[in-house]
Write a structure and sequence with these properties.
Rossmann fold; DUF938; six-stranded mixed beta sheet; 34% helix; Methyltransferase type 12 domain-containing protein; 12 strands; SAM-dependent_MTases_sf; single chain; alpha/beta
Length: 269
Amino acid sequence: MASGFAAAGGYNFKGSMDTYSAMEGQKRESPAAERNKEPIAGVLVEHLRAATVTVTAKPAAQRPVILELASGSGQHAAHMAGKLPAFDIQPSDVTSELFGSIAAYAANVPNVLLPPLVLDATAPDWPESAAAAAAERRRAAGASPSAAPSAGTGASAGASGDSLNADAVLCINMCHISPLEATRGLLRGAGRALRPGGGLLFVYGPFTRDRHHTSESNAAFDASLRARCPDWGYRDLGDMADWAAEAGLERVEVREMPANNFMLVFRRP
C-alpha cells in the first residue's frame, strides 16, 4: 500500500506530524522516505544526467538547482544532493515546523541550500515568492539581486530577477494528502518556476489510473484519506497530464515505482 502521511510536511493536519520518529537532535525520520528515497533518486539521476549537457551550459558560477516542495523532514533533499553533486537542492515546506530537521540532515551536505524556503503550493505566486527569497539572499550576500549566484552562497542558483528558472522541481508524496488546489498549484507554478527549454518536474506518489486503483490496499487507503479530509485523496494520472498541459508542461514519462506508486515526469518546453 502506498503511504506517506509524514512526507507532505506542513500540509498534514496538526497532529499527524507524530508519524515522524524522533532521531538525534532535531532530526525527524519518515519511514516512507527511508524506503523510497533510493528509487526516487534513481529516476532523478537518470533524467538529469541525460540533461547534463543542457543543464550545465551556464556560467561557471551558476550551478543548476532543484527546488523541492513539501520537503518534510529533509531526508529526500539530503539524499538527492548526495546522488546529484553537480546540482544544488533547495528545500521548502508550507511551514517552518520541520526546518530544524531539514537543516540537521543537510549539516554535512554542502549542496543543500539553507535555510529552507516557506512555500505554499496553493498560493498563486509561489514561484515569484521563491525567486524573491533567492534575490534577498543574494542581496544579503552582497551580490546584485539579478546576478548569477555563486555556489555556497545559500542562494537559489537558478533564480534571476523575478524568475526562478529552476532546472528541476521535485515534489514527493504531497498530492494525495493535501488539498486539490495544492496539486493544481504545484503544476501551475512549476510551469513558471522551471527554466524554459527543458526544466523538469518530478511528482512522486500514489495515483489512480483511468479512475481505477492499482490495488485493493490503495483503494482502502484512498477511502481512509477522503474520510479524514474530503479534499484529500488520490489524483488520477489522466487529470495530472491534463492539468500539466494547461500549465504549459509536456509529459515525459509515467513510471511505475515500488509499493504501487508512480513517478510523473513533465518538461517545460
